[in-house]
């Protein structure tokens, strides 16, 4: 149970402000979830590079000299440490190898997500603290999603915070609670998916990843989620160039969207949107039940 | 006229001021600025005050209103005018889900669209929506009138009791136990009366269709189990 | 010599016992599931499976009647300007006008007031009779919102947001046509004589994040005076309690599966929910994990029948209990004096549970004017007051024997369990051992 925000910029001149806009949106939703908060920012991809966002409960020992340790095993990586997180930039194509090396060299490190452009920051605590810890305000980007959590049935931990990464450059935030996630998790585990938490939302994320691995695009995966996921949900998802929203067929968890020539925005409540430029003139609506909404930079261009 | 700026004044002060109107007071027109999606704005009014809210509000604005006249110059979040007893609430923009939920009296006018579950469990309130309404509207509606100048979403009037629904546009689908009914002269008269109260002109009652309870679920019958 | 088969008595199936067979026939004949009142009738681990240890040499008891053992409780100390102060931690659970007759509601108010405790409205709104006769009245805020209005909200002493009840967590109510009298129909804004289905979810919020905002609205309407209770059925007590606290509740009411109901499907009553005994420790754990034990009060209900049950619930960490079925019995429900009439209804005193049909010979679960007259609200209220006082004295007696000067000082360590099941559920050792099965998680 939670507050969700999302912002997809159409106007490139707003891109430097993405982190600041999204931070304010998320902080406004604090009341909906005081347990943990997280944000995924899609920034400019560096040509030929892949980003991996890492988290550690002991960032000192884990991140210090990480570059050197990776170099020793023949992996070239630049490491940018931000509090409990670090963003690794490695050569495209070396992502899997780097993750394998990290598991050996620094077993305490957790991968929050990876891809060409996504960076994911999440921690326990209030949105304002999480945002300032990672200096999210200073970050630019094309789109992003954020989440503040009131844990229902799973633990309040960093890994239990949203967004959940669903594959390269994919992530998901969820408001609601699923009622068939345990069965679904068992099926996905049989198919080879690996889970970090007991969180129902992680099951939704893994489900989308598994469906996309079978060849579906995100829109199609969300359509099949409407058949296969039971319970209450509003999902906001991000891909490298896209941004999607879907609500369950009963659709009683709140969701408000706004669109202008400059952006598409999502908030669990209208309050989250009030600081956006030109909101007074935006088209504001509530997404229909069991309907997939999707925006894509590449398709729009 | 008291002007309350919610950017500096706590919500509690606004609502307690509205609850403490002395009998015979003339100072009964309030203006609320900077609501910025705040919840529970102007709730529990029990006197004939006027409140003009300049901006959009969050959940449950004008909840349980009993005799007040509240206008939101913006949009309203979930459950606006929930359980209204009497008085009038006007939303200049759109309303989120559950508008007028369980309302027992008074008039709710939504000048834009209303989202899902508009008039859910309504118990006597009159709701007039200039635009369209979302799915599951008037679910379990017990009494009162829901008038929609635009279209209605899926499952209109599901499990309806005796609330009367009037829609000018299309209805995506009817819910269980809801059916189209004959528009009789008294319904035309009632619609005209509601238009007048809601300040609507240029619309004729004859343009509407009436929907009400088929009353098949009023007493349990196993052969209707598919409807549950 | 001829051989005779020795006699083999007919053997009935344990799986298809007489009751099961009758149920199959009844369903086949009527085409409707069985609807009834009261709580579960199956045997589940309960307070009976726990015993107090008492004091002897290692601890010293208090002298009965002379050394004080306090029973008072304050509910709603977290946010409310006007918390509820009760002389005894035994409150009366929510029961609706509609399910119960007017005189029965009046009697509950009278009895509770004499005993210094609170009573609670139900799905059907507040009547003048019960407000007038109840010194402390908790007003239920239910999914149906029948009779809900701000005046009653303000003249209540506390507000109980009902999310669920123990007899049917996740389910709504059912009041059959026979009981929708003119007055009930008017209070509920329903046509007379229809089967009324109550909603299972609130119409204007879903989930703890929305509940937080709903509680804010109720506080704003009542100027932050009234304690806000949140009532849940025994389903996932650890999470439900934690979320009620996060949503801003002053008091959590947790109702186990033995809790009664006016009318629900039998399959719901018997097969959904957890025994009261199993609910308490997880709920207390949630409060302790949040640092809110004793700051947000916990009321336990569902099958509380005696002072011993009260003492055990408190020892396990509750702040108070609520009684429903036991209170109705004190008023005169299922009294053998009406045996002849119970027989005519195809049942017997002690088993009558067709509370929804409105034919209660005792005049309690009915809207029939003639039957209602059988219950004298003054005498019945007195009986309830006596019962409440006896329960309080019993709990006090036990607490003194355990060396406590206040009921709230009873602890889990004052208890032992008679069965492995009760030991596991209550997390107190099996008698004579230090063994608690399954210790270390829920």
UniProtKB/TrEMBL annotation, chain A:
Matching Pfam families: GATase_6 (PF13522)
Residue span, Glutamine amidotransferase type-2 domain: 2-298
Name by which UniProt lists this protein: Glutamine amidotransferase family protein
Alphabetic keyword roster: Glutamine amidotransferase, Transferase
Record bears the keyword Transferase: yes
KW Transferase (keyword) present: yes
Organism listed in the record: Sinorhizobium numidicum
From TrEMBL, chain B:
Protein name per its UniProtKB record: GXGXG domain-containing protein
Organism of this sequence: Sinorhizobium numidicum
Glutamate synthase alpha subunit C-terminal domain span: 49-188
Coiled coil: none
Matching InterPro entries: Glu_synth_asu_C (IPR002489), Glu_synth_asu_C_sf (IPR036485), Glu_synth_lsu_3 (IPR012061)
Superkingdom to which the source organism belongs: Bacteria
TrEMBL record, chain C:
Family: Belongs to the glutamate synthase family.
SUPFAM superfamilies found in the cross-reference section: FMN-linked oxidoreductases
Pfam family, one: Glu_synthase
Domain Glutamate synthase: 77-332, 356-404
Keyword Hydrolase annotated: no
Designated name of the protein: FMN-binding glutamate synthase family protein
InterPro entries: Aldolase_TIM, GltB, GltB_archl_type, Glu_synthdom
Alphabetical keyword list: Oxidoreductase
The UniProt record lists the keyword Oxidoreductase: yes
């Amino acid at each position: 149970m939670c507050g969700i925000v999302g912002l997809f910029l159409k106007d490139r001149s707003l891109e430097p402000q993405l982190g600041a806009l999204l931070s304010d949106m998320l902080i406004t939703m604090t009341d909906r979830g005081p347990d943990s908060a997280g944000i995924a920012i899609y920034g400019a991809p560096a040509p030929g590079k892949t980003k991996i966002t890492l988290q550690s409960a002991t960032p000192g020992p884990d991140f210090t000299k990480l570059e050197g340790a990776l170099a020793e095993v023949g992996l070239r990586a630049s490491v940018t440490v931000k509090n409990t997180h670090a963003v690794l930039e490695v050569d495209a194509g070396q992502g899997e190898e780097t993750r394998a090396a990290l598991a050996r060299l620094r077993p305490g490190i957790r991968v929050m997500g990876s891809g060409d452009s996504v960076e994911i920051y999440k921690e326990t605590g209030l949105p304002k603290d999480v945002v300032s810890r990672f200096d999210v305000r200073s970050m630019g980007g094309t789109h992003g999603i954020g989440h503040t959590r009131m844990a229902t049935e799973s633990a309040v931990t960093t890994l239990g915070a949203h967004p959940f990464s669903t594959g390269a450059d994919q992530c998901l935030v969820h408001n609601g609670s699923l009622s068939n996630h345990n069965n679904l998790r068992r099926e996905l585990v049989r198919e080879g998916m690996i889970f970090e938490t007991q969180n129902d939302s992680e099951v939704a994320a893994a489900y989308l990843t598994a469906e996309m691995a079978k060849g579906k695009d995100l829109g199609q995966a969300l359509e099949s989620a409407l058949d296969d996921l039971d319970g209450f949900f509003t999902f906001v998802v991000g891909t490298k160039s896209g941004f999607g929203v879907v609500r369950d067929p009963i659709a009683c968890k709140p969701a408000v969207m706004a669109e202008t020539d400059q952006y598409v925005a999502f908030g669990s409540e209208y309050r989250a949107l009030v600081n956006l430029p030109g909101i007074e003139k935006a088209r504001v609506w509530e997404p229909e039940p069991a309907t997939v909404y999707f925006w894509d930079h590449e398709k729009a261009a | 006229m008291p002007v309350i700026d919610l950017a500096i004044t706590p919500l509690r002060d606004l609502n307690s001021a509205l609850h403490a109107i002395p009998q015979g007071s003339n100072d009964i027109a309030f203006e609320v600025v900077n609501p910025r999606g705040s919840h529970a704005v102007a709730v529990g009014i029990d006197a004939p005050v006027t409140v003009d809210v300049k901006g959009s509000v969050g959940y449950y604005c004008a909840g349980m209103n009993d005799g007040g006249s509240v206008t939101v110059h913006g949009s309203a979040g979930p459950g606006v005018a929930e359980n209204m007893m009497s008085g009038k609430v006007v939303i200049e923009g759109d309303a989120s889900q559950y508008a007028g939920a369980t309302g027992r009296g008074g008039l709710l006018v939504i000048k834009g669209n209303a989202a899902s579950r508009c008039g859910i469990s309504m118990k006597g309130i009159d709701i007039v929506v200039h635009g369209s309404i979302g799915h599951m509207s008037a679910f379990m509606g017990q009494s009162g009138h829901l008038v929609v100048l635009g279209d209605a979403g899926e499952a209109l009037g599901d499990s309806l009791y005796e609330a009367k629904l009037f829609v000018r546009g299309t209805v995506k689908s009817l819910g269980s136990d809801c059916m189209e009914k004959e528009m009789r002269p008294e319904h035309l008269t009632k619609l005209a009366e509601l238009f007048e109260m809601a300040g609507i002109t240029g619309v004729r009652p004859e343009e509407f269709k009436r929907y009400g309870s088929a009353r098949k679920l009023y007493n349990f019958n196993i052969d209707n189990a598919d409807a549950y | 010599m001829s051989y005779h088969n020795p006699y083999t008595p007919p053997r009935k199936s344990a799986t298809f016992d007489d009751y099961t067979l009758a149920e199959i026939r009844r369903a086949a004949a009527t085409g409707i599931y069985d609807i009834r009142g009261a709580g579960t009738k199956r045997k589940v681990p309960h307070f009976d499976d726990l015993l107090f240890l008492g004091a002897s040499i290692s601890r010293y008891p208090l002298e009965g009647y002379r050394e004080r053992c306090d029973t008072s409780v304050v509910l709603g100390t977290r946010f409310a300007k006007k918390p509820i102060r009760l002389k005894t931690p035994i409150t009366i659970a929510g029961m609706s006008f509609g399910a119960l007759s007017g005189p029965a509601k009046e009697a509950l108010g009278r009895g509770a007031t004499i005993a210094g405790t609170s009573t609670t409205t139900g799905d059907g709104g507040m009547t003048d009779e019960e407000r007038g006769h109840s010194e402390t009245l908790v007003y239920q805020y239910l999914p149906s919102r029948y009779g809900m209005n701000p005046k009653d909200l303000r003249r209540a002493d506390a507000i109980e947001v009902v999310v669920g009840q123990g007899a049917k967590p996740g389910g709504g109510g059912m009041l059959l046509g026979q009981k929708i009298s003119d007055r009930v129909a008017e209070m509920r804004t329903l046509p007379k004589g229809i089967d009324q289905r109550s909603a299972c979810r609130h119409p204007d919020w879903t989930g703890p994040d929305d509940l937080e905002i709903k509680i804010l609205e109720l506080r704003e309407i009542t100027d932050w005076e009234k304690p806000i209770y949140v009532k849940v059925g025994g389903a996932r007590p650890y999470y439900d309690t934690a979320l009620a606290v996060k949503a801003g509740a002053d008091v959590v009411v947790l109702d186990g599966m033995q809790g009664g109901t006016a009318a629900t499907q039998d399959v719901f009553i018997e097969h959904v929910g957890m025994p009261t005994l199993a609910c308490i420790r997880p709920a207390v754990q949630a409060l302790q994990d949040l640092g809110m034990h004793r700051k947000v009060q916990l009321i336990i209900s569902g099958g509380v029948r005696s002072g011993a049950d009260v003492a055990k619930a408190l020892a396990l960490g509750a702040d108070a209990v609520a009684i429903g079925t036991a209170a109705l019995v004190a008023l005169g429900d299922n009294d053998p004096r009406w045996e002849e009439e119970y027989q005519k209804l195809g049942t017997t005193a002690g088993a009558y549970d067709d509370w929804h049909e409105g034919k209660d010979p005792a005049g309690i679960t009915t809207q029939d004017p003639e039957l209602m007259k059988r219950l004298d609200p003054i005498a019945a209220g007195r009986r309830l007051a006596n019962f409440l006082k006896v329960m309080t004295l019993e709990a006090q007696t036990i607490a003194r024997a355990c060396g406590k000067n206040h009921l709230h000082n009873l602890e889990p360590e004052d208890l032992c369990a008679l069965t492995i099941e009760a030991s596991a559920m209550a997390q107190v050792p099996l008698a004579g051992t230090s063994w608690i099965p399954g210790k270390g998680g829920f």
